[in-house]
Model the fold of this input.
Amino acid sequence: MDNIAGSKSGLTWAVHISVAFLVALWLFPTLGLLVSSFRTTDQISSSGWWKAMFPTEQTIQLRTGGTAEAVQQDGLYVVEGNLLTDEGGPGMGSKPVAFGVSSREIGAYEIGETAVYSDGDETLTIAEDGAYRYTSVEEPGRRGQRVFLTAVTPAQATLDNYKTILFSGSGQDNMAKAFFNTLTVTVPATIIPIVIAAFAAYALAWMDFPGRALLIALVVALLVVPLQLALIPLLRLHLGIGIGKGYLGVWLAHTAFGLPLAIYLLRNYMVGLPRDIIENAKVDGATDFQIFTKIILPLSFPALASFAIFQFLWTWNDLLVAKVFLIDATGSTTVMTNQIVELLGTRGGNWEILATAAFVSISVPLVVFFAMQRYLVRGLLAGSVK
Amino acid sequence: MNPALLGLVTIIVGVGGCLGYFYFSNLILDKFIFPAKGPNAGVNINRANQVRPWLFLFPAIFALGLYLAYPVFETLRLSMTDRTQNDAFVGLANYQQMFGESKFWEAMRNNMLWLIVVPAASTAFGLLVAQLTDRISWGAAAKSLIFMPMAISFVGASVIFKLIYDTRPEDQNQIGVLNAIWLQFEGGAGSVIFLKVLPLIMVLAFGVIVAYVGYLLIKPFITADEKPGGLGIIAVRIIGIAVAAWLVITSIGSLFGIVATDLPYGEPQTWLTIPFYNNFFLMVVLIWIQTGFAMVILSAALRGIPEETIEAAVIDGANPFQIFFKIKVPQIMPTIVVVWTTITLTVLKVFDIVFAMTNGQWETQVLANYMFDKLFRANDWGVGSASAIIIMLLVSPILVWNVYNARKEMR
Done:
């Protein structure tokens, strides 16, 4: 096409570059979350995640050895050790660039210089490899002296955040339970509506009865009814008939809320199946039930898969329905989305926890998305009311 | 019982129950109620076939009726009762109370902004990406990546964007991208171009487009050549004109705002607490998610355009922009409308993003979150139901339109 109207190589390049730019813009936010989930608390709070691939300079507060490590030499107390490898140090890969002995001048001395404390009795020297020598006229305190070390730390990734979130974390930080709760909500809420909707869709597609057109119109209408309207009456109903807040309630709610789309998608697909097959089967004496289970269901697999993905994504990502119908005062049935919102409130600044928790929650939908994108696209194309 | 086990049992009971219901109800119908043998065999088969659709439909109708249709009317009834007075009928008192609250009008104003900005921006970006990726070799991969946010929950997206909007004190390194970029602006020439001239042009363009749409809507009333249409269309036109007028006034106001404001260069901003503009920072999240959806649908529509129309335009010497705006866009207009209305529906129900990011503070309230607030924090079911009815009212034009189209298509 381009060649017909002459050379357009400039425009082609512009297209490539703008698409690359848009893709980068769309990926950038998610990438930030992913990178942040592999960084330590110090790294996250000392530099932006886009610098994570490069060495970062950070200042940390450490302590020299105390009384226990001190030895007497020439009338002075001397403590020697290595700041990089001591507890809390940034590790051997780091390169110290400056240090300080008071919180007002945290980078006052270069490496190799000797710092003299304000009282004049104490000195501190730090070498390139982190080894330090502290001398004092008086016996040093039990906990040692404060040192502010500025060091360039190489880029590094850690899996500690994931360990905390999935296994070792306590209380709110542990998402394992919420993960299984979400799974428990999702699986039945995805499978059950498919069964119910498939039968209804078959009736609406291939059976003749009065009121069929009206029912289809009703399904289209219910497709857009905001589920906000259902919250109070249904919560009252659930409390009234004794289901209360719990899994059963949330399964029922998700099933019903997913039905209009399921019926609509499946009916549109089934109507397009070849009439001959069904009529031949009828002539051969098959009942409707047999036609449905033996012919229609296997042929409708693509539509079933489309809806299953929709419903899975929707129930996995849902917050509102779970908050209203599932999560009670004890909070033992909390789902991941809800736990993340709570973390946002209580751990607003702890990005390593937040980022990891969020990424754990979105990883499963992402896997499903990339594995079954074909069906999702097909479902979208069939499901948007034309 | 362990929830996982309970889930498994539910799947088995639910699925098995459904299949069993369908199987046995059919069996009973065919074998016992209307057996296809004996003297009445023919009549019985006919009768059975009349009843059977309802057997297939019953569980779905029951669930839809109980969980979606009945609540619409029950919510309407609840919106006229007062829970504290033992559910006594109070007429429109709840609505009166709601209309008197400034928070409600704030939610309405924000919702209107959301309703205009998010569908427009998502559709525009979606159309742009769909067109750009149409003919390049790695278009499928690019589309797949832009489509990806569709799989991310609103809550997950909120966390992602909260990290982008994060603020640190002035003397520390910024870890939010937006502040890191913001601090690059020092008030020089670059800042003027990016933060004054560019927004000025964008707002001006938006205002002009809206004014033009308003003019198109108003034209039939002032010239004799065109008829304004039936009563319904006149009503739609008047509403459209009112919204357009409001938008034009808002745009003009913000034009002055952009020129007059002294931007606090060099200070990290807490983006989500800046009134009015924070709405747009929240909208970005939904636009980011919905663009992929618009792109997928519009991309399919673009592919469906007959090649001949484009070839004819090329031979007539049209440039790529003319081909796009004059040949392609008019042909996919029905699909654009579908995408627009679908995103509008999503916007009307948007709750998670506002709930997770600001919870309606700093003037970012929207109707769905307002309703949740009333229901579960203020425990005021009457006003909560009333606001749900308002959402329903806003949805109903689309509902009618969809049903109308679906019926037209079936004929």
About this structure: Chain A has three domains: 9-52, 56-153, 164-383.
